[in-house]
Structures are given as structure tokens and as C-alpha cells.
Hints:
The protein is mostly helical. Helices cover about 75% and strands about 0% of the residues. The protein has one domain (about 5-340): Mitochondrial carrier fold, CATH 1.50.40. One of its GO terms (biological process) is nucleotide transport. It is a multi-pass membrane protein.
Amino acid sequence: MSDAVINGLAGAGGGIIAQLISYPLQTVNTRQQTERDPKKSRRKHGTLEQMCQVVKQEGWERLYGGLTPSLVGIATSQGIYYYFYQIFRSKAEAAAFKHLKEGTGDGSVGILSSLVVAALSGCLNVLLTNPIWVVVTRMQTHTEASLKRRPSESLSVTTDEAILAAAETPPYGISHAVQEVYDEAGVLGFWKGVCPTLIMVSNPSIQFMLYETLLKKLKTMRASRNKGNDGVTALEIFFLGAVAKLGATLVTYPLNVVKSRLQAKQVTGGDKRHHYKGTLDAIMKMIKYEGLSMFYKGMSTKIVQSVLAAAVLFMIKEELLKGIHLLVKRDVNLVNVVRSGLPR
């Protein structure tokens, strides 16, 4: 089994577990980013309070709206990303080794090369998986979108009425979301938000650059203290992943808000302030009508969700990699033992 396949499988497994743990936070954050009612936007509700409101008004299941396509998406996304990341990384390492032999380098992959490797992997990932995330966003925001079809009425909805409305809302599945997106914009609708998402490729690039830099420094310190033993623990990987994701999220969060706005159900009638023709149109209208602060709405929730998810992903991925390598090594050893016992 190739290193690329092993990394892809480990990344997919880690991504699924991380998504299951952090998904309610992701749902709340998507709703925060796509909230367009100015009165609701000015209210300061904590993440936990908002989660409780969703549960009270719509039920527990709404916190997991779109979970099925999300798990498919995260497994596909992480699998694709880590698969191509390992392929490009191996090529970069081979190039670095070649330069070392030629006397023009130290044999290690530089920061710029690491950024290019992560960016290429991220671009392929985005182009292949964007339709899945459009469907996920629709399912995460569906109930709110349905209550906002008549803005003049939504402001006067009481809690009891909201609960009743949620109860009367027909089941909204993957097929409904797919049909809705197609009816709005055809096949191209499944690539809504792809421009800011492609720019956001810098997020995992920054994340992995920070992660690998910190990991390399930690291993160097560990090796110097432990006479060549540079092993790191799962808890250390957890914290390194958290720090790396925190840095990347702080830089790229505004683009995440724009992406969510574009992928959510568009306002087709009435208030044209919330109908976006594209990325630039969305940015200009958000600045004009909602202010720069809107680009950081829900950021605290996103930081908690993304840092938690990234930390769990890195920790699980590294443990899965160790397990897969042990299994492969054991199988190879078993084959060698069997072969050595066969008559010549």
C-alpha cells in the first residue's frame, strides 16, 4: 500500500471523527454567518445559548442537519487532500534530496515548497468537493431560510410559533437540497462560493506550514534531549494541530463568511441587499449594508469548532497512520516468514 493511499485513509478517518464531535458547533456557526436579520445580528448570544435555542425551537436533529452529506464530504475531502498532499510532498522531498546531492540545499523541504504543496492539494480538493459543501450549507440553514421567506412576518414570530413552524416543516433531505440548488442556478449552482473557497486554500496551507514547522522543532528538541528519540505523543499532536488551525483561521475567516453567504439560499424577491450575484457583489453589499464587523460574525464559534476539529483530526490521523504502518509491517513480516519456510 502506497504512502499516499495510507495518508488518504488516515486523513479520511480522522476527518470523520473530528466532524462527528464538532458538527453542532459548525451548524451554529453557519447560521451565525448567514443571519441577515439586523435585529438578530445585533443581539449578543453565546454559542451555547444559540445551540440551546436551536434545540428548543427546532429539536436536537437540527444541530445535525446535513450530517450525512457532511460526513461523505469530510471523508472525501480529507482523503483527496491527504492523498495528493503526500504525492506532492514526496516529489518536493525528492527534489530537495536532489538539490542536497548537488550541494545546493540542506535536503529539507522549505516553507515555500510546503505552501505550494498544500495549496495544490487544497485546490484539487475544493474543485472536486465544493458541490457537497453547498448541499451541506443548505441543509444546515434550511429551517431558518424557510422562516425568512416572508421577512415582515419573521420578526413577529414567537417562540411557540417558531416551534410549531419547525414541527410543521416537511422533511428536508439531500434530494431536496440538490433540487433547490439546481432550480436556482443549474449545474453551476453547485460551485457557488468556489472563488472564496479557492482563496481560502491558504487556510490549510498556513495551517500545515505552522503544524509541520512546530512539529519539526518539537522533534528536534526531543531528539537532542533523548539521544535521537524524536517521538511525540498524541496529546502533543493535539495541541500542535490546535495552534496551527487557530493561526490559519484568524487570517482567513472573512472569506469563510462570504462563502457561507453565497452557498446559503438566496433571497430572490423583495430585499435585494441580500441577493448576491457573485463573490465581489457579496463583499461589496456586506460592506455597504452590514459593515466590516459582519466579516467576523460568529468567529469565536468558528475558532472553537475549527480548532477542536483540527486538533482531533491531527491526533486521530497520526494514530491511524501508526496503526496502519504497524499492520502493513506485520503483514510484510508474516509474508517473509512464510516465504522463508517454503522449500527452495
